[in-house]
Amino acid sequence: MIRISRYTMLALAGLFSLYHVFRGVITLGVPDSPWPSIVAMVLYIGATIISLWPTSPVQMPLSLAFFNLAVSITLCLLVTSELDPGADNGYATWHVASIGTLMTITAARRREWTAWAGVGFLTIQSIVWAGIGTAAAIGVTGSVTWVAIAVVIARALARAGRDAEKLVLAERAAAEWQAAQDAHFTERARRLDEASRLAGPTLRRIVLSGGDLTPDERMEARLLEAGLRDEIRGRRLLNLDVRREVLAARRRGTMVSLLDEGTIDDLPQEELDRVLAVVAASVADSTSERLIVRTAPLDSTAAVTLVGLSKPAPGSEDPDDDVDLWREVPRSAAAGSDPGRRSRQGTMEST
């Protein structure tokens, strides 16, 4: 595929525009006075330079479009004011092609109605000035045709650009969907493999025994179920130390809940290891009947919150569980010198 750079196209358009000026220069002797044509040439060159400026956006500013329209109207009036409509003026009617070129540039830069207004004024003024036959002979029809072609091409390119953008968005959405599906499939396969590895032996014992398990085997099955639940709900709250201490706490009779809300996914591995070390130590030291380990909200300075709950002491009039452990593990080591901030409270509503 042949590609033409933007600067090459601008250079070609500039040379084509200057060609019209050259035609006007060599026929300056035809008008009664050359000065109106010279002024028209200066205006035309200025409008062309601004319209073809390399750093300009694709869509022409509305102010520049109106300026080009004003220049086109001025060119018609200045050049024809010194020409004889009944004579063969030759290239002295250079303004017709110049206006067609300037309005074509305007249309290509997505200011269609301004371009149509420019060639429309050119057509009407030329017919009034010299008649329909002369207007066609000096190239008015060609100028209108250029603008029409520019409008069609500009619309086609704009439509192609929109379609390309839609295709890019659709492709991106499809890639994201495929990535999510692949991640879901991989995660599901990993969890199935993990569950099969952990629960396989126990399930085989249950099948072989017909469900008649000893109390110890039933306890191990419950611990296994809780561990599998941790793998699903605990996610990044788990490492080898945390798994070991949680299992030990459950064997002591503590109900442990691990809840990862996804707020520590962006935590650096070094900080995550520090946080999980505190969690493992806290679980090991806990004497609570219930222990809840939950990731803190994103706007919190804490990464993980540990809450220990126990039934109220005998004779207590408060039916709510006692909070005998409250620990917040900061997201970064700089947030506190102590690896975890602990405070004891009297009671907390049972959850």
Automatic annotation (TrEMBL):
Residues 309-351 are annotated as: Disordered. Keywords: Membrane, Transmembrane, Transmembrane helix. The chain crosses the membrane at residues 33-53, 60-80, 92-108, 115-132, 138-158. It comes from the Bacteria. This is Uncharacterized protein.
